[in-house]
# Entry
Amino acid sequence: MITFPGTAAAVITRKALRLMGKGATTLPGKLAIRISPSVIREKSRGKHIITITGTNGKTTTSHMISEMLNYLGYDVINNISGANLASGIATTLICGKDEMMKAKGQSKGTIYVLETDEAAYAKTAGDLQPDVSVITNLFRDQLDRYGELTHTRDCIADGLAKTSATAVINSDDSLVASLGKGREDKTVYYGMGKEDMLRNNTVYPPKKGILPASPDAVYCPDCHVRYEYRSRSFGHLGDFRCPSCGFASPASRFEVRYDLGRSPSDEDYPFGISDSVTGETSDMKLRIPGSHNLYNTCAAVSAVTVMLERLGTDSKTAFEQATDAAGHVKAAFGRMEKIDVGGKKLCILLVKNPVGFDRSLSFVEEAEDAAGLMLLLNSNTADGKDVSWIWDVDLESKADSLPGYISVSGDRWGDMLLRIEYAGLVSADSGDMSRAMEILKAALDQCPEGKCLYVMPNYTAMLSLRADLVREYGLKEFWK
Amino acid sequence: MSEKYKLTIGHFYPDLLNLYGDRGNVLALYRRAHLRGIDVSIRAISVGDDLDPDEIDIAFIGGGQDSEQNIMSDDLVNVKGPIIKDMIEDGKVFLCICGGYQMLGKYYKEHIGNVVECLGALPHYTEARSERFINDTVYLFTTDDGREVKVAGFENHSGRTYLGEGEKPFMKVVTGHGNNGEDGYEGAVYKNTFCTYSHGSLLPKNPVITDMLIERAMKKRYGEEYVLPQLESTTEDMAREAVLEYIAHGKEKAP
# Structure
C-alpha cells in the first residue's frame, strides 16, 4: 500500500487531537488536502460510496442509510458527526476505519456513507465518484453563508455532471427534481405518493395564520411563471407543474403511501413505501417520527435499494432488504433523540433554518407527550450571523397548539423572545446562554413524569447545551 | 368612535421578495395596529395581481434573491411602476428594504458594469461591489418629535447606494456600513416613503419606526387630527436592549 504524505499527517494529527480529547473530525483532512490536494480522489478509488446532499435531512438520511446497510451485513464508514465539508470527507476517507460500524458476522464489504455539504459536493463529487448520490431538497438556509438557492442547485448539478452516480432525487422539490433532466437513465426519483398527497392535502388543510410563511422556489426559473400545485406536503414540496413549459413533479419509482388520519409525530406511525419497478409495496412503521422523516426514510430506502442493485442484488430482494432494514433504525444525535432525565424526557431538535423550524414546531404541535418547549438562538459564524430567518416561519398559525410552557435562551434570546411574543405566545422564562441550564432545569421541573421537554437549539447553541448536558447528566460525547 | 378605523397593508411580491425575515416587518405593522383596535388587513400583491392605490395604506416591498428579482422586476417597473410612483408622490406610506430600496431608485449597476434600469420613483442609484456588507447594525433614528433613538438591525448587501436630489437619509450609522460605507448614513426618506438596507427584522425590535409608519398612514387616511393611541413596548424594548448589548459586547465563543 502506498502511503501518501497527506494521509500520514492526517492520521497523526487525528491521534494527537483525540489524545487531547478533541473530536478531530475536520483538521486531519484539512491538513491532508493541503499536503496532497488529490487525497480525496486517491483515497476514494475502488470504494463504494453513497453521498447525501441537500438542505434538510442530510444527517438523518445518512444515519438511516448507515444503520440499514450495517444491519444488512456491511461495514459502514460515515461522517456522522456532521463534518460534511471537503475536510471532513477527507478525514472520514483517511481515518474512518477507526470508527467503522462493523457488520455483525461475516462482512459483505465496506460502504462509505458521506453526508456532503451542497457546495462541497460540487468540489468533491468528481473525485469521490460515488455509486449513489442522494439529493434531499433545497430550502433557504443561512443565505449569508451559502448564497442563493439557485446557485446551490447549480453547484450540485456541476458535481453530478462529473460522476456516473445514480442520482436519488426528491421528485416533489422543483429545484432538485430538475437535476434529473438530461440524465434520466442515471436518475431514480422518490417522493410522496401523488394521490396520497392529494387526499391528505384535502382532508388535512393547513391552518390559516395572519401571513403565510415565506416560500422558496414557487416560480419556474425558466418561464418566470408560478407553478401550479395539485397538492403539497410542506414548504414548496408537492405535486407541481409549470403551466408554461409543462415541467412537472416527475413520476417516482419509490413513493410514500400514507394517511394523515394519524399523526406522523406518533411512535411507530404506520405507512408504506412502494417500488414501481417491482410493483411491491412494503408496510412499514416510522422509526424516527415527524412527517419530514417520511421523506428521509423513503430517500434512505431508495438509496439502499439502488446501492444493493449496483452490487448485484436483484431489484425485488434489494427493495425487500432495504425496507426490512429501515424498520430497525434509531434516532441520531440532536435529531429527535430522546434522553431520559429522572423519569422525564428531553428531546433535542436541531433547528437551523426556516423549514427545519417549521417542521420541528409541527412535530411538537402533534406530539402527545409535549409538556414544554425551549428555544435557543445563537448567531456565531457556524449558525449564520443573521437571525432574521426566525421571522420567515409561520409561527402564528401554530401558536395555539404548542405547549403552554415555553422558554427562551441563547445569545440572541432577545430576538427569539420577541419572535414568540409576536406569534401571541408568552415566555415563562428567558435569558442569555449563561442561564440556559437554569432555564432548562426549570422547564424540566414543571414537566410531569413521563412527559417530554422539547428543546430546539440552533447549531452552536446545541453544541454548548450538549456540553452542559454531558456534564450535568453524564451523557456520551457525541462524536463517539 | 362610531366607525372602526381600518388599515390595509399591501405586501408586494411576498412569494418572491421575502428574504431575511422581511415577513416580520409586516407582522409588526399588523400587530401594533391590531393591538390599538385598528381593523388591519394584509393584501398580497404579486406578479400579475391588480394594484388599487386607494386600497393600500402601507406598502411593503422587501428584497429577494437575484433569480427571484429577475422574475418580478418587469411587473414592478413596467406594470405597477406608474401607479407606485403616483402613490409615492401622493404621500402614501412605503417601507422598502434592501432589494425593494434599490429597485425604487434610478438604476442598479452590476459588478460587470451592466446597468439594470429600475423604477426611478426615487432619485438614488446603486452600484454593486465585490465586498458584501454582512453584519449586525446599529443606527440613530430621529423621531418626528426630535428624539434620537437607537435602532438595531442587520445588513446584507453588496450594493452601494447614493442618494439623489430631494431625498434625505433615513438614519445615521453607529455600527455597520449603511448605504455605501462612505458617508455614514443609512437608507432614504422621501415624503412618506422610507427605504433601508436593514433586515433583522427591522420593525419588531424597533417599534418607534413601526408606530411612526402606522401613524403616518392613519393620518393620511383619516386626517392630521388622527391621534395614534398609546401602546406599551416593554418586550420590544427589552429585546432591542438585549440585541444592542450583544452587538456591543457579544463575542464569538468557541463551542
About this structure: Chain B touches chain A through 47 residues (CB under 8 Å). Chain B has a mean pLDDT of 94.
